[in-house]
Design brief:
The complex is a heterodimer of chains A (about 80) and B (about 230).
Chain A: E1 15-16, H1 26-30, E2 36-39, E3 42-45, H2 56-60, E4 66-67, E5 70-74
Antiparallel strand pairs in A: 1-4, 2-3
Chain B: E1 8-11, H1 16-20, H2 30-39, E2 41-45, E3 50-52, E4 60-66, E5 69-74, E6 80-86, E7 91-92, H3 95-99, E8 106-109, E9 113-119, H4 120-129, H5 131-157, H6 160-173, E10 178-179, H7 181-187, H8 192-204, E11 208-211, E12 214-217, H9 220-227
Antiparallel strand pairs in B: 1-2, 2-9, 3-8, 4-7, 4-9, 5-6, 5-8, 11-12
Helix pairs in contact in B: 4-5, 6-9, 7-8
The chains are: A alpha+beta (about 80), B alpha+beta (about 230).
The complex binds iron/sulfur cluster (2 copies).
């Protein structure tokens, strides 16, 4: 496999808003890779390598507490697509 | 044991130079700045932490030194509408300082935030001694009112798609601030599902490209047209 140079080498992980999360565990039940768990009443990413950034936890969290963060940028070669 | 959800508050560690970096204070003389420096409190907040709750009594004005603060209103069904974002040098919670009412908006830290807190009485005393401050504050408030008028116009007359396009262009231009779909929905005055659908449609039209952790604006000109729809 050819290694593709990539702008971001750091793996982006879902972010959990501790003020919103009530520890209901829905994200844990739905996560296909067991990347998230509830600890001390709040969701945490326990297996960063496993998370495949699927939309499940974000889509079904009733509190809007877990979300996949992204940055918004202009394309370097804008216009070319 | 201190409550970990509370902010950390320090006092008296502010220098005159730190205060002068805040545009509202820039014109004050050394003596006044030194006096003000003794009166402000430095507060630190974690990402996601509430700084102010809407409809609560307000006793102070907050100046942002570091980080981003989101000002919003919450509907009875729990949806939040973002009213504005405040960054370094800007302030929030001025309205109740001047009209004596409750805080009109909830303020939450969007990153690690450092604020200077100045009590209402201290700010009013400062303004009485330095009327120029009142003019500067009026000019800032007028600017904030204009932004709110633009927001009302957007919410009343433009589609979610147009609001999303405007937001993407503004955020891309403003440097890479981190966001989630929840945040995107709150900023565009809708719910996550609808904002997500609008974003995916833009990706299908090759206006943007979605990658893990990144939304890349591919066609600024076409997106600007969408923003006017
Ligand atoms: S689904 Fe949401 S509220 Fe429930 S534990 Fe997960 S992050 Fe917390
Ligand atoms: S994004 Fe998907 S894989 Fe990652 S924690 Fe959420 S549900 Fe699990």
């Amino acid at each position: 496999m050819i290694a593709q140079p990539h702008a971001s080498t750091v793996t982006v992980l879902p972010e959990i808003d501790r003020n919103r999360c009530n520890g209901c565990g829905i994200c844990v039940a739905l996560c296909p890779t067991h990347a998230v768990a509830v600890r001390d009443g709040c969701a945490v990413i326990v297996d960063a390598d496993a998370c495949n950034f699927c939309p499940l936890c974000e889509t079904y969290c009733p509190q809007g507490a877990i979300g996949r963060p992204f940055t918004i940028t202009f394309c370097a070669t804008e216009g070319g697509g | 044991m201190p409550d970990p959800r509370r902010s950390k508050i320090e006092s008296g560690a502010m220098t005159i130079e730190d205060l002068r970096a805040i545009p509202l204070f820039a014109s004050l003389d050394e003596t006044t700045l030194a006096d003000t420096a003794r009166r402000v409190h430095i507060c630190h907040y974690r990402p996601g932490q509430h700084i102010i709750h809407e409809d609560q009594p307000a006793h102070a004005i907050f100046f942002v030194v570091r980080g981003r603060v989101r000002l919003s209103r919450t509907a009875p069904d729990g949806r939040e509408q973002v009213l504005a974002m405040a960054g370094p040098g800007e302030y929030f919670n001025a309205v109740p300082i001047f009209d004596g009412g409750l805080s009109p908006a909830t303020a939450r830290a969007m990153s690690h935030v450092t604020c200077l807190l100045l009590a209402r009485d201290d700010l009013l005393a400062l303004i009485r001694k330095h009327p120029d401050l009142a003019l500067a504050a009026l000019s800032d408030l007028a600017g904030q009112l204009r932004e709110l008028v633009t927001l009302v116009e957007d919410l009343a007359f433009r589609s979610v798609r147009a609001r999303l396009a405007r937001l993407l262009l503004a955020e891309a231009a403003g440097g890479a601030a981190e966001m989630t779909h929840q945040e995107l929905a709150e900023r565009t005055g809708t719910v996550r599902e609808i904002a997500g659908r609008a974003l995916r449609q833009m990706a299908e039209e090759r206006l943007v490209k979605l990658e893990r952790g990144r939304v890349i604006v591919l066609d600024r000109a076409r997106l600007a047209k969408v923003a006017e729809e």
